[in-house]
Specification:
six-stranded mixed beta sheet, globular, 2 domains, alpha+beta, five-stranded antiparallel beta sheet, binds zinc ion, 23 strands, single chain, Alpha-Beta Plaits, Aminopeptidase, 428 residues
């Protein structure tokens, strides 16, 4: 269990290499945001403030900055600049290129981290797009572009929600992060921020159509390898064919018993790659066979459990292991981890979940609960660090990674209000 800060100042950012931009410390309280009143409009009846279209303009700005995994620098700079303009106490970029903004509440209390990844998948089929993937075009209620749903609508909303916060009401600290390389390795960018700041609660901003994700399946890349002995294919008896050696194990793994979880559902294990060596082979009996599985996990499975269970089913002729990932960051550093991203579930009694529900109810959002079948950065916070975690955001996953990706602007505006309401529900 992470400790809680006892001062009105958030914990110091880690002593990482700052990449310019510096920091700006504003006095605690409502005053710093008064300069930004143009960001909110107040109902004539004195009702809650509403985000104005600036969040949509900021989303357009972000969509117009391409940010493939490992190339997020321009987006990080735009986020940092916007945070400083909004009056965040600090906004810094760490050695891996994550940007982290800090907002201190008026009183001591726990810390809540809101995270959205900054990277996007590539454009696979540009000629099929009917909108410029980097145009941020708005047609009706839809804003089009790569990353509109996954994940720049979320990123714009968590950054801009600060304009709606009344810091005098907050006890604790808010961290807002734009993280790198989620599309390559879920949680490995966020891990650097979480390990430095030790937040008490984490809210992962991903498209949920404004539902509250209370858990998710995990994901791992499981390797199954057989070693053989090369020989000329004209004399196969002198070698050991690694593919033949692996096949019985692969067939047994096809029937791996899949367990169920009452919240996140069923495990899945799918063979996605099968590679023999040498390849191409000029009349050589393969000396190596590598199979890779995409494995969707349930909560509480450790690396050791996974390998022992798979090895027991596969048998002694093959070796089971986890793929190692090395993901280069735009800063020149490399994120390194096992391709193992565990599942997690946040219990109903969690202060995070109760506070989020309370906050959303206060603005009239009735958020249904669900468990994500996909993997998010929450694998690190919820699955590895054991920090209570939720998922929430505008847009739906079915619109992600697609031709003519879009997000509904109304959802982005509603989510901006929702993020601020969750912060106040948890920290006020
Ligand atoms: Zn995403």
């Amino acid at each position: 269990m992470a400790s809680r800060p006892t001062t009105t100042c958030p914990r110091q950012m880690p002593p990482v290499e700052l990449q310019g931009g510096g920091s700006r410390r504003a006095p605690i309280g409502k005053a710093p945001f008064l300069r930004y009143n143009h960001l909110t409009t107040h109902n004539h009846d004195g009702g809650p403030p509403m985000p104005d279209p600036d969040v949509i303009q900021f989303l357009q700005e972000l969509v117009r900055l391409p940010s493939l995994s490992g190339q997020e620098e321009a987006v990080a700079r735009a986020v940092q600049a916007r945070m400083l303009a909004l009056g965040y106490d600090r906004a810094e970029i760490d050695a891996w290129g994550n940007v982290c903004g800090i907002i201190a509440g008026a009183r001591p209390g726990p810390s809540l981290l809101l995270d959205a990844h900054m990277d996007t998948v590539p454009i696979a089929d540009p000629q099929r797009w009917t909108h410029d993937p980097f145009g941020g075009e708005i047609e009706g209620d839809r804003l089009y572009g790569r990353g509109a749903t996954d994940n720049k609508g979320c990123l714009a909303a968590i950054v801009m929600m600060a304009a709606l916060l009344d810091r005098n009401r907050l006890a604790g600290a808010v961290y807002v992060t734009g993280t790198v390389n989620e599309e390559e390795s879920e949680g490995s960018g966020l891990a650097k921020v979480v390990d430095a700041l030790h937040p008490d609660y984490v809210l992962i901003a991903e498209g949920t159509a404004l539902a509250l994700g209370i858990g998710q399946k995990g994901r791992a890349s499981v390797l199954v390898e057989a070693e053989g002995k090369p020989a000329h294919a004209a004399n196969p008896g002198e070698g050991v064919n690694a593919v033949y050696k692996a096949l019985p194990a692969l067939l047994r793994l096809r029937d791996l018993p899949l367990r169920q979880h009452p919240i996140v559902g069923s495990e899945l294990a799918e063979l996605v790659e099968l590679i023999s060596s040498p390849y191409p082979s000029n009349s050589v009996v393969p000396f190596h066979c590598l199979a890779r599985y995409d494995y969707r996990m349930l909560p509480d499975e450790t690396k050791e459990d996974l390998i022992a269970r798979w090895q027991a089913v596969a048998g002694p002729e093959v070796k089971v292991s986890l793929r190692r990932q090395q993901v280069p960051c735009y800063t020149g550093t490399v994120l390194e981890c096992d391709d193992f991203h565990p599942a997690w579930v946040t219990p109903p009694e969690s202060r995070l979940l109760q506070g989020a529900r309370r906050g959303l109810a206060a603005i009239g959002q009735r958020a249904a609960d669900f468990a994500a079948h996909y993997c998010t950065n929450g694998s690190y916070s919820g699955g590895i660090a054991g920090i209570p975690t939720l998922i929430y955001g505008p847009g739906i996953m079915q619109h992600a990674h697609r031709v003519d990706e879009f997000v509904e602007t109304e959802q982005v505006v509603a989510a901006t209000r929702g993020f601020a309401a969750i912060v106040e529900g948890v920290l006020a």
